[in-house]
Design goal:
The complex is a heterodimer. Chain A is of the alpha/beta class. Chain A is built from eleven helices and 14 strands. Chain A has two domains: 181 residues, Rossmann fold, CATH 3.40.50.970; 129 residues, Rossmann fold. Chain A starts with a strand and ends with a helix. Classes of the chains: A alpha/beta, B alpha/beta. Chains A and B meet through helix 3 and helix 4 of A and helix 5 and helix 6 of B. Bound molecules: thiamine diphosphate and magnesium ion (MG).
C-alpha cells in the first residue's frame, strides 16, 4: 500500500501496463520530455524511450488515426488529449472510425483515449468540458471516469487491457487534490461497475467524478439532520451499471442524479429515464436531476460557481425529496 | 521526376506480370460492369460508384506493393483490392448486403477490412468521411514499425479528399515520423460536382505534398506502366525507411459521381478527350505494339475475366441475406464475428508460383 495522488495513480497504472505489455505505448502532444500538460506521463520517455512515448504535432485526428491504425497491427495505444475539450477536433475519427470498427468489420480497436476533463478550476469555455453525453450516444465506445486514486489506477489498467476503445476521463480538479491508498499488487477495477461510496436509507444520489466529493459533503451535512444519503459513484459511464442504481433506489425510493455537465441531454437524463422505466414501482417521488446550466462553462469563479451544482443545491434537493 | 526508361522499375516485369496487370484491370472493369447490371436490376442495395477510366491507376499502383503489404481503398479503388487478392465474390456480396458479406450486411461496397495477425495482405476499409484513411494508414505504418514488420501502407485520396483536415494531419504526421506510407492522390477532375479548380489553387495535385516535405511526382494516371513505375519508386522508398511519398495521378472520372448522377455538370469535350485515353485500351494497344501479346492472347484474357466476374456475381447473388436477429451483436468484443475474406491468386500468380516481383525486391534489400 502506498498513498498517492489521483494523477500519480494514473501514471503508475500506465507505466505498469507499459512494462507488462510491450504493445502498450503512449502518444500525444507534449507527452515526452515535458511529461504532458499536467505531467501525467512524466518520466515515461526516460523509462520507455521515444519509440513508445510518441510526441506528436498538434493534430488530434492524426493522433487518433495513428492509434487506430497501429491497434489494427496489434498495438495497444494510449492516446492523450491535452484537454478533453479537444476531443471535438477528433470527434469524427473517434466516433465514426474507431467506435464503429468492431460492429462493421469485427475488427477491434483496443485503444484508450485519455484526457483531463471537468471544471472548478476557472478553465473557461474550452478547458472545462465534461463531454460524456456526446459519447454515451456512440455505440462502440466505453467511457470511464474515476473519482479516487485507487479507481484511477485500476480503471486505467482495465481500459488498457480492454479490447475495445475506451474514453478515459480524468477529472483535472482531482489530479492533485485527491490522495488515497493504492495497493502495490497488480489489480484492475472492472469496467461497468458502480460503487456505493456511502450507504444510506433515505435518498440515493447517483453521481461520478469530482461531484462524488460534493455529494459526500452534502451527505455529511444531511446526516446531521438525520437524513441518510446513499452516494453511488458510477465510475463507468458507458456501459452504465443500472443494477447498482436500481438496487439502491429499491431501498431508498428517492433519487437525485447529479452531474457536472450541462443538464439538457446530459447523462442524468438517461439515468433518470432508466430508473423511471425499470424502477417506477419503487419510486415515492419523481427522480431529480442536478446538473450545470445550459450555457458554455464560464471563466469567472463566481460565474462558474453559479453555473455548477454545489453542496447547497444537493442539500436542498434531498431535503425536498424527504418532504415529498 | 521520372527517370530515363533504362531505370524504369517496370523494366523488371516479366511477360506474365504484364499480362497479369492487364487481367487485373480488365477484371476490375468487368466486376463493375456486372455490378452496373445488378444495380439496374435493383439488386444492389445502395449506390454504385464506378471507377470507369480509373481502373488502370488503382491496379498499377497496388501492383507495386508486395503481396502482404497493407492497402486501404476508397470507393473507386476496387482495382487495388483485386490486385491484393480480395475475392470478387466478397465485393458483390457487399454491394448486395448479403449475410455472408465481409461485414455481414452491416456496411456497404468496399467498406470492409481484412486484417490477419500475420502474413497475407492487410486491407483496411474506409469510412465515408474522406481523409481519415491517411492518418489511419499512417498508424498502420507506425504499428508495423513497432511490431518489426517491414510492410508498406498504401492508400488513395481524391482531389476533393485532399482538402480535408484529416488528410493534412495524416500527411504531416507521416512525414515527421518518417512512416512507410504511400499516398496515391487522384486528380479525376471532379469531386462529386465540384471541379478541381474549386478544390485547390495548385496546378498539380501532387504539389499538396510539398507542404509536408514529402517527395512527390505526377504521372499520367491512364498510363498503367507510368503509374506502376512511380508507385514502385514510392513503395521502395517507404520500404527502405525513407518515409512517405505521394504519387499524383492525372486521370478522369468517366461516369458521374455515382450511377444515380445525371452528369449534367460534366464537360462533354473533356469526357470525349479522355475517352480516347482509356487506360485499358491504351495498355492493350501497348501490349500488342510491343509484341508482348497478340490480339488473340488478350481476347482470351478478356473472356477469362468476364466469365470469372459473371460466375462470382452469380455465386454472390445466391447468398442469403443476414438474419435480422444478428443485428444487436458485436458492438463490443465477445459476441463479435471474425471477418473472413477469401484471398485468391490470379491464374498468372498460380502459374508463377512465387510472390509478385519477389526477386527484384530481394535483390534490392
Ligand atoms: C468529409 C466528407 N465530406 C463529404 C463527403 C461526401 N462525398 C462523398 S464522395 C464526395 C466527392 C469526393 O471527391 P474526390 O475526393 O475527388 O473523390 P472522387 O469521387 O473523385 O473519386 C463527397 C463530397 C464525404 N464522403 N466525406
Ligand atoms: Mg475527384
Amino acid at each position: 500500500m502506498a498513498e498517492m495522488t489521483y494523477l500519480e495513480a494514473i501514471r503508475q497504472g500506465l507505466a505498469e501496463e507499459m512494462a507488462r505489455d510491450e504493445r502498450v505505448y503512449a502518444i500525444g502532444e507534449d507527452i515526452g520530455a515535458y511529461g504532458g500538460a499536467f505531467k501525467v506521463t512524466e518520466g515515461l520517455l526516460e523509462r520507455f524511450g521515444a519509440e513508445r512515448v510518441i510526441g506528436t504535432p498538434i493534430s488530434e485526428t492524426a493522433i487518433i488515426g495513428a492509434a487506430i491504425g497501429s491497434a489494427y497491427l496489434g498495438m495497444r495505444p494510449v492516446a492523450e488529449l491535452q484537454f478533453i475539450d479537444f476531443v471535438a477536433c477528433c470527434f469524427n475519427i473517434l466516433t465514426n472510425f474507431a467506435a464503429k470498427s468492431r460492429y462493421r468489420w469485427g475488427a477491434g480497436v483496443p485503444m484508450v483515449v485519455r484526457g483531463p476533463c471537468g471544471g472548478g478550476v476557472s478553465g473557461g469555455p474550452f478547458h472545462s468540458a465534461n463531454p460524456e453525453a456526446h459519447f454515451l450516444h456512440t455505440p462502440g465506445l466505453k467511457i470511464v471516469e474515476p473519482s479516487t486514486a485507487y479507481d484511477a489506477k485500476g480503471l486505467i489498467k482495465a481500459a488498457i487491457r480492454d479490447d475495445d476503445p475506451v474514453l478515459f476521463l480524468e477529472h483535472k480538479f482531482l489530479y492533485r487534490r485527491v490522495k488515497d491508498e493504492v495497493p502495490d499488487a497488480d489489480y484492475v477495477v472492472p469496467i461497468g461497475q458502480a460503487v456505493v461510496r456511502r450507504p444510506g436509507d433515505d435518498v440515493t444520489v447517483v453521481t461520478f467524478g469530482a461531484m462524488t466529493y460534493t455529494a459526500l459533503e452534502a451527505a455529511e451535512q444531511l446526516a446531521q439532520r438525520d437524513v441518510e444519503v446513499e452516494v453511488i459513484d458510477l465510475r463507468t459511464l458507458s456501459p452504465l451499471d443500472h443494477e447498482t442504481v436500481l438496487q439502491s433506489v429499491a431501498k431508498t425510493n428517492k433519487v437525485v442524479v447529479l452531474h457536472e455537465a450541462q443538464r439538457t441531454g446530459g447523462i442524468g437524463a438517461e439515468i433518470a429515464a432508466a430508473i423511471t422505466e425499470r424502477g417506477f414501482e419503487h419510486l415515492d417521488a419523481p427522480p431529480v436531476r442536478l446538473a450545470s446550466l445550459d450555457t458554455p462553462v464560464p471563466y469567472n469563479p463566481g460565474l462558474e460557481a453559479a453555473f455548477r451544482p454545489g453542496v447547497e443545491q444537493i442539500v436542498a434537493a434531498v431535503g425536498q425529496l424527504v418532504e415529498y | 521526376m521520372p527517370t530515363s526508361t533504362a531505370t524504369r522499375p517496370s523494366d523488371d516485369l516479366t511477360r506474365d506480370d504484364r499480362l497479369e496487370l492487364y487481367y487485373f484491370a480488365r477484371l476490375t472493369r468487368d466486376i463493375e460492369e456486372r455490378l452496373a447490371v445488378l444495380y439496374r436490376q435493383n439488386k444492389v442495395v445502395g449506390g454504385l460508384y464506378r471507377s470507369l477510366g480509373q481502373e488502370g491507376e488503382s491496379v498499377a499502383s497496388a501492383y507495386a506493393l508486395a503481396e502482404d503489404d497493407a492497402v486501404a481503398a476508397l470507393i473507386r479503388n476496387l482495382g487495388s483490392l483485386i490486385v491484393q487478392g480480395i475475392r470478387p465474390r466478397a465485393v458483390f456480396t457487399q454491394y448486395m448486403a448479403k449475410g455472408t458479406s465481409p461485414t455481414r450486411g452491416r456496411d456497404l461496397n468496399l467498406h470492409f477490412s481484412h486484417i490477419p495477425d500475420a502474413g497475407g495482405p492487410i486491407v483496411v476499409g474506409p469510412i465515408s468521411m474522406l481523409g481519415d484513411l491517411v492518418p489511419v494508414m499512417a498508424g498502420v505504418g507506425l504499428g508495423a514499425r513497432m511490431r518489426g514488420r517491414a510492410l508498406v501502407a498504401m492508400t488513395y485520396i481524391g482531389d476533393g479528399g485532399t482538402s480535408t483536415g484529416a488528410f493534412h494531419e495524416g500527411m504531416n504526421f507521416a512525414a515527421v515520423q518518417k512512416l512507410p506510407l504511400v499516398v496515391i492522390a487522384e486528380d479525376n477532375k471532379y469531386a462529386y460536382s465540384t471541379p478541381v479548380s474549386q478544390q485547390m489553387a495548385l496546378a498539380r495535385i501532387d504539389q499538396r505534398a510539398e507542404a509536408y516535405g514529402i517527395p512527390h511526382e505526377m504521372v499520367d494516371g491512364n498510363d498503367m506502366l507510368a503509374v506502376y513505375d512511380a508507385s514502385r519508386r514510392a513503395v521502395e522508398r517507404a520500404r527502405h525507411g525513407d518515409g512517405p511519398s505521394l504519387v499524383g495521378v492525372d486521370t478522369m472520372r468517366m461516369r458521374g459521381h455515382a450511377e444515380h448522377d445525371d452528369m449534367r455538370y460534366m464537360s462533354k469535350p473533356l469526357l470525349d478527350a479522355w475517352k480516347a485515353r482509356d487506360p485499358i485500351a491504351r495498355y492493350h494497344a501497348h501490349l500488342v505494339e510491343t509484341e508482348i501479346a497478340t490480339e488473340t492472347d488478350l481476347a482470351e484474357i478478356d473472356a477469362m475475366s468476364r466469365a470469372y466476374a459473371e460466375a462470382e456475381a452469380d455465386l454472390a447473388e445466391a447468398e442469403p441475406p443476414p438474419e435480422p436477429d444478428t443485428v444487436a451483436a458485436g458492438v463490443f468484443a465477445g459476441d463479435h464475428f471474425q471477418p473472413t475474406v477469401e484471398i485468391v491468386y490470379s491464374p498468372f500468380r498460380e502459374k508463377r508460383g512465387t510472390p509478385r516481383h519477389a526477386p527484384a525486391s530481394e535483390a534490392g534489400s
